[in-house]
Design goal:
Shape: elongated
Number of helices: 16
Number of domains: 3
Helix content: 25-40%
Number of strands: 17
Radius of gyration: 29 Å
Structural class: alpha+beta
Strand order of the largest sheet: 9-8-12-13-15-14
Length: 462
């Protein structure tokens, strides 16, 4: 016999409580329960097999309201019973409780998991549920206008939509119910403060050192989810990821360490397909990798191989996915991961790893360019690494503050770093950054070469 799995369960004898295993099969992909077979898959036989084969169908109908295919079988003179139930199109309960088969285990559904399960069985998604507290006053017109601009650029939204009212636009997107109530998707996508209703609608970024206990600094990105990817990308470019500089003739280029559009596609997927009844989106940035995790696992049967091959799109949040599509952010044909693959292959960077992890999806990206630059920096000479420390230390007689030393470190890494970028990295207001820069120039430690927009900084070693 086959081993126990998603669709098969073995029991040596019958108990009425085993009907809940059949309930779990019906709420999942269907399956078969065998009575008279042990956990090893060996037939041990069952007593009163003929009577049970007549009683069990009645019990299934009585408890679950479905028809089971019950068969009396025999092997080596030992009788056993096969009970097969198909997958149900409607939610099935056992004594008022809902169960679902997951892998080789049986799970009882409660709370948000039960709500999402019932919605899926009804052909709906959580983002279609009406928010009874939100009103049109919670909607940000600037977010609406942003969507219209993006949709027109993508040629997925008509130009005359610019003149429509906020209510008309939300209605056209199917984000208002028949009673005029706003759906969850409307508030998440266009809300002034979605976190008021959905605390997990947050994107957290953390820079870590040697392990997860070594958190160096972090950022929390809030606001509507339609513009969240833009805000995340701005913070990543200014504070977390490197953009190596190269010259072609007199032309200067700064290119992000990983393919920008492919990274943006990964962000869109994490935001659009997140389970908003669960935890916030988390981005862990290490020296050697970047991990992006969102609540909500891949569709049943989907793996990394499925995603990077031709596949059907199965969005978790139907309404959110529709708006992201019309804004030109994602594709409805399951081609998003093809774009990711093309971007990483073009750059010669290993493909991201996609996997189910801790109830959600984790995407891991290797920071090969960052590692390469770190190694190159070390190979240039031992003085390169030592200069970064010793030169700042040698400036100590000039009585530099810790913040001024931090500013000099940023300038050593990028002589064209802007005041705004320093402000983001050091978590200081721009006014304070400017005051420190002026003091460093006064002390003769720092010199500005060129104008404000096109110039650069030079450190005077002492």
């Amino acid at each position: 016999m086959n081993n126990e799995n998603q669709n098969i369960e073995y029991k040596e004898s019958w108990r009425d409580e085993y009907v809940k295993w059949l309930c779990g099969f019906a709420n999942a992909q269907g399956g078969t329960l065998y009575i008279g077979i042990n956990d090893k898959g060996d037939v041990c036989g069952v007593e009163n097999a003929h009577r049970l084969s007549e009683d069990i169908p009645n019990k299934v109908v009585s408890f679950l309201g479905i028809i089971a295919d019950v068969n009396l079988l025999s092997k080596d003179g030992k009788n056993y019973i096969e009970i097969a139930v198909p997958s149900s199109d409607v939610p099935i309960s056992f004594k008022g409780k809902y169960y679902v088969r997951s892998g080789s285990t049986l799970q009882e559904l409660n709370g948000a998991a039960l709500q999402n399960f019932v919605l899926r069985k009804m052909g709906r998604s959580w983002d279609e549920v009406t928010n009874d507290r939100a009103t049109l006053n919670d909607i940000d017109r600037e977010a609406i206008d942003y969507f219209i601009r993006k949709g027109i650029e993508a040629e997925r939204v008509p130009d005359d939509l610019r003149k429509a009212s906020t209510e008309e636009i939300l209605t056209s997107l199917g984000l208002i119910d028949e009673n005029g109530g706003l759906m969850n998707a409307a508030v998440l996508l266009f809300g002034k403060n979605p976190q008021r209703y959905y605390p997990s609608a947050v994107f957290k970024i953390g820079r870590f050192g040697i392990d997860d206990a070594d958190l160096r600094f972090q950022d929390v990105i809030e606001g509507n989810i339609l513009q969240m990817a833009d805000r995340v990308m701005d913070v990543l470019k200014a504070k977390y990821l490197i953009s190596p500089v190269r010259f072609e003739g007199m032309q200067r280029y700064e290119k992000l360490e990983m393919p920008k559009e492919a990274l943006r596609e990964i962000l869109y997927n994490a935001i659009a397909h997140k389970d908003y009844t669960g935890a916030h989106i988390q981005m862990h940035i290490y020296d050697d990798s970047v991990e992006i995790w969102n609540e909500g696992e891949l569709p049943k049967g989907y793996t990394q191989e499925t995603l990077f091959a031709r596949h059907s799109s199965k969005p978790r949040n139907l309404k959110i996915a529709n708006v992201f599509f019309k804004a030109g952010f994602i594709d409805t044909w399951g081609r998003g991961f093809q774009k990711i693959r093309d971007g990483f292959e073009t750059e010669g960077i290993p493909m991201p790893k996609v996997e189910n992890f801790c109830g959600g999806v984790r995407v891991t990206i290797e920071r090969t360019n960052f590692i390469k630059m770190t190694r190159v920096g070390s190979a240039v000479g031992n003085n390169v690494a030592s200069d970064v420390t010793s030169s700042v230390t040698s400036l100590s007689p000039v009585q530099l503050t810790d913040k001024q030393k931090d500013i000099l470190e940023l300038i050593r890494k990028n002589s064209r770093v802007s005041v705004k970028e320093m402000s983001l990295v050091l978590s200081l207001v721009e006014r304070t950054i400017k005051r420190h820069l002026a003091d460093l120039q006064k002390k003769g430690v720092l010199v500005r070469v060129g104008n404000t927009s096109a110039g650069h900084w030079e450190i005077i070693e002492k």
